[in-house]
Amino acid sequence: MTQPGRPVVFVHGLWLHASSWGPWLELFQEAGYAPTAPGWPGDPDTVEESRRDPSRVAGKGIDDVVNHYAQIIRGLGAPPVVIGHSFGGLVAQKLLGMGLASAAVALDPAQIRGVLPLPLAQLKSAFPVLSNPFNYRKAVSQTLKQFFFGFGNALTEQESNALHAKYHIPAPGKPLFEAAFANLFPNTPAKVNTKAVRGPLLITGGGKDHTVPEVVSRSAYKLYRKAPSVTDYKVFPDRGHSLTVDSGWKEVAGESLSWLRGKGL
User: Fold this and answer.
1) Alpha carbon separation from 222 to 12, 94, 114, 195, 225 (Å, rounded)
2) Cα pseudo-dihedral 182, 214, 8, 265, rounded to 10
3) pTM of the model
4) Strand partners of residue 106
5) Is the pLDDT of residue 3 over 70?
6) Residue 33 CB burial class (10 angstroms; 0-12, 13-18, ≥19)
């Protein structure tokens, strides 16, 4: 009888639907894993449903998302590899630090407590949400122009617009506020246990990323310098925040697979 593959849980970030992991699921399944890509709490099954009813995700914060995926993971037969993008990368780090994952890949992850750089591009990307305190409890959409700046700036405008049409959904504003003020509150939900004894972690940075500039990813990596467990860092110098969904996604997925295999996973 064929043994089931190692489980892999994919966690999306703000403004992308879980279906954006579709090509990754196929690739990882072909590689012998047992992948799944559950949505955030309240996420409908389709992009269209998500756009019709943004209220389903409004008010959801980092803790809500972490607890949601923790419950899913506890129902699996073995601790999975968790692969997250953007805020999904922050969630992946938290789950790994909690001992719920065998390994994690944090792709251009949202800033955790202790990360100090705040580049202008990141401020500009987050400003449409953070500029209105009422967005804390709302779900907010990105215009084509905002998506192009935050996600698609390393692409042609045509490809960026196509990704927006295919995968973009309204996202809760609360996680952005929690991350933006993380260094002011010791018990912030954006705090990660960087000194935990845990499985290996890979953090990536995108050299052209506006939403999570590479210096932010690198700063997160440096917070793990005294960690007793393996932490690696990989830069994709010509990639923006769309690196998991654009035409170059396979390079990022392939590097993730190679890293997992190199760790015996």
Assistant:
1) 24, 16, 10, 12, 5
2) -120
3) 0.97
4) 84, 203
5) no
6) buried
Instruction: Tell me which residue of 197, 178, 205 sits closest to 189, measured CA to CA.
Output: 178
Instruction: Report the DSSP pairing between strands 34-36 and 7-11.
Output: parallel
The residue ranges of DSSP E strands in the chain, in sequence order, are: 7-11, 34-36, 81-85, 103-107, 139-140, 171-172, 201-206, 231-236
Q: How confident is the model at residue 1 (pLDDT cuts 50, 70, 90)?
A: very low
Strand 103-107, strand 7-11: pairing: unpaired
Instruction: Dump pLDDT digits (tens) for 161-207.
Output: 999 999 999 999 999 999 999 999 999 999 999 999 999 999 999 99
Which residues pair with residue 35 across a beta bridge? 8
CB 253 within 8 A of CB 24: yes
Q: Which residue has the tokens 């953070």?
A: 130
CA distance 188 to 157: 36
